[in-house]
Specification:
The complex is a heterodimer of chains A (98) and B (491).
Chain A lengths: L7 H10 L6 H18 L34 H5 L5 E2 L2 E2 L7
Antiparallel strand pairs in A: 1-2
Chain B lengths: L1 H4 L4 H10 L4 H13 L6 E4 L3 H4 L21 E5 L26 H8 L3 E6 L33 H8 L5 E6 L5 H7 L2 E4 L19 E6 L2 H11 L28 E5 L11 H16 L3 E5 L7 H16 L17 H12 L2 H14 L4 H25 L2 E5 L15 H5 L7 H5 L3 E9 L8 E8 L5 H15 L9
Parallel strand pairs in B: 2-3, 2-4, 7-8, 7-9
Antiparallel strand pairs in B: 1-3, 4-6, 5-6, 5-10, 9-11, 10-11
The chains are: A mainly alpha (98), B alpha/beta (491).
Chain lengths: 98, 491
């Protein structure tokens, strides 16, 4: 079981994974807060769960099938209307390599 | 006149509107007037006129309305997490400021088909993450009983609006207690139906395996009326099942032949339950016996681990669900020269502190090397909690607990201590982990520890999956015996 504090470096790594820019102050605070919460969460490490099946969903899910027939979807204009930046019938974003 | 109108329950008002005794627009205007004077910051948007409230000009307006509409002319405060076509929908977040969805949530369309109207969109903790409404990007909603205290959360605006007479009823969402806890803190009824009872389509996702829509109302009959209109299988949500046979309106006057288990882990032995809350709980248990119900102690040995499991699973699901807010297709964008930087800046500016904390927590729990230790284990605890309930329901029809360990707390009291805030959900978190229905009804008032004004206390009844109608029926009998004065704001 993983225990102990979450180092600031780890916080920075997770923030990168989550695509979140955190300020210096946020990094500092997050490290303390996450450590505190995970310390509480770690209580579940005391439980014997070896033969227990994990639950990802509480109800028995069945596949929902329908005939594969064409039907109208959202219009391109209606979707682009809400975009922060659109051009030539597409969402426009800055270059992935500036 | 207007003040008399806003004292009516949903059932009473709908009956008068159907019989022609009350004009639907007069009733709507009485509430629009009350909503315009909202001093609780409970509402983020209010309908300008009847046309807007009826979703005129949207796809939903083509739905056929029930010829004998059970919710005829009933204005509803809709938590701002439900998409409403053309009407601002923010989920309490600045990242969705100004967003107007292209479609309307299935639950809201169900209400409209039953004759209801959208009065307002109600305030909430950002993306439903919070237990006090203080995490809203638009300022906290306040408790109508004491404006210096929180209404609970995350459906805090919905609860404050109903208790403060700004709306006759409201809908919200409950992931770990977000309907029941604010209902308890505001002295109204709040119900989380069985997972799958109501479609999640158009409900902005927080933790998809837990989120469920439900009613916040002044009494149990009104809760049944709203749920009746919303439940059902929806082809747009493959996890929706509906309630077989629909929801029956409650009419039980006693509890003869029913048994109620009091789980010691969530009642007698639970830490942090205020003495006033404990007293009201015990009085209510005594009332169950007076009504002919059988009460005995039971156990839910893994329930105390609910908070731990929940604060791994819910943030994990949230971190995936909230990946869609990236400044590309809708909502806020913060400009930057490079794509990843644009994502990071947009999310940094658009999300508030609690949402960031949960995204971080969830991303960490799912990250390489930690997945099994946190996420895997939490899923196994979830199994144990569900098994505990199944075992209790072999012996008892229902399980009862206090809804919230405390009465409404002061604004700012828990904002600096995330864990203390999370523990507000101690008694409400186990039920959604097991997918079972639970309802909170107002059971009385009590002083907070340390003294002060009397504030509402909620009593929670939980039942097996799909026992929603039977649970409402039992709650109705108990509600009648309690005779709680629904005088929002304690005036």
């Amino acid at each position: 079981m993983i225990r102990g504090v979450i180092e600031r470096e780890q916080v920075e790594h997770v923030a990168r994974l989550a695509r979140l820019k955190l300020s210096e102050e946020e990094l500092e605070r997050m490290s303390g807060e996450l450590s505190g919460i995970l310390e509480h969460v770690d209580r579940i490490s005391e439980l014997d769960l070896d033969d227990v099946e994990p639950t990802s969903h509480v109800i028995a899910l069945e596949n929902v099938l329908r005939p594969d027939e064409p039907r109208p979807s959202w219009s391109r204009d209606e979707m682009l209307e809400r975009a922060p930046d659109a051009a030539s019938g597409s969402f426009r974003v800055p270059s992935p390599q500036a | 006149m207007a003040s008399e109108l806003i004292d009516l329950t949903v059932a009473e008002a709908a009956e008068r509107i159907r019989s022609g005794e009350l004009a639907a627009n007069e009733y709507l205007d009485a509430y629009r007037e009350a909503a315009a004077a909202d001093s609780l910051n409970a509402l983020l948007w209010t309908a300008e006129d009847a046309g807007q409230a009826d979703l005129e000009g949207t796809r939903a307006s083509r739905d056929e309305i029930d010829p004998e509409p059970p919710l005829a002319g009933i204005p509803v405060a809709v938590k701002d997490i439900f998409c409403t076509e053309g009407i601002p929908t923010t989920a309490g977040s600045r990242i969705l400021e100004g967003y107007r969805p292209p479609y309307t949530a299935t639950a809201v369309r169900g209400l409209r088909r039953a004759g209801a109207r959208v009065l307002a969109k109600s305030n909430m903790d950002e993306f439903a993450m919070g237990s006090s409404n203080e995490n809203s990007g638009y300022g906290p909603a306040l408790n109508p009983w004491d404006a210096g205290r929180v209404p609970g959360g995350s459906s805090g605006g919905s609860a404050a609006a109903v208790a403060g007479r700004l709306a006759p009823c409201a809908i919200g969402t409950d992931t770990g207690g977000s309907i029941r806890q604010p209902a308890a803190l505001c002295g109204i009824v709040g119900m989380k139906p069985t997972y799958g009872a109501v479609s999640r389509y158009g409900m902005i996702a927080f933790a998809s395996s837990l989120d469920q829509c439900g009613p916040l109302t002044r009494d149990v009959t009104d809760a049944a009326l709203l749920l009746q209109a919303m439940e059902g299988r929806d082809p747009c949500d493959s996890t929706s099942i509906g309630i077989e046979g629909g929801i029956r309106l409650p009419n039980r006057q006693d509890l003869k032949g029913l048994s109620f288990g009091v789980p010691k882990e969530l009642a007698g032995e639970a830490e942090g339950i205020e003495s006033g809350v404990r007293d009201v709980f015990e009085q209510t248990v005594a009332r169950i016996e007076e009504l002919g119900g059988e009460v005995a102690e039971t156990e839910l040995p893994h329930a105390p681990h609910g908070i731990s499991a929940y604060y791994v699973l819910a943030p994990a699901e949230a971190s995936a669900n909230l990946a869609r807010f990236d400044g590309v297709r809708y909502g806020l964008r913060v400009d930057a020269d490079e794509l990843t930087e644009m994502y990071e800046e947009t999310r940094a500016q658009g999300f508030g502190p609690e949402v960031k904390r949960r995204i971080m927590l969830g991303t960490y729990a799912l990250s390489s090397g930690y997945y099994e230790a946190y996420y895997g284990r939490a899923q196994r605890v979830r199994t144990k909690i569900a098994e505990d309930f199944s075992k209790a329901f072999e012996r008892f029809d229902f399980v009862v607990t206090p809804t919230s360990p405390t009465v409404a707390f002061k604004l700012g009291e828990r904002t600096d201590d995330p864990l203390a805030m999370y523990l507000s959900d101690y008694c409400t978190v186990p039920m959604p982990l097991a997918g079972i229905p639970a309802i909170s009804i107002p059971a009385g008032t009590a002083q907070p520890d340390g003294g002060g004004t009397e504030l509402p206390v909620g009593f929670q009844i939980a039942g097996p999956a799909f026992s929603d109608s039977a649970m409402l029926d039992a709650a109705h009998a108990l509600e009648g015996a309690i005779g709680f004065q629904r005088n929002g704001g304690g005036k």
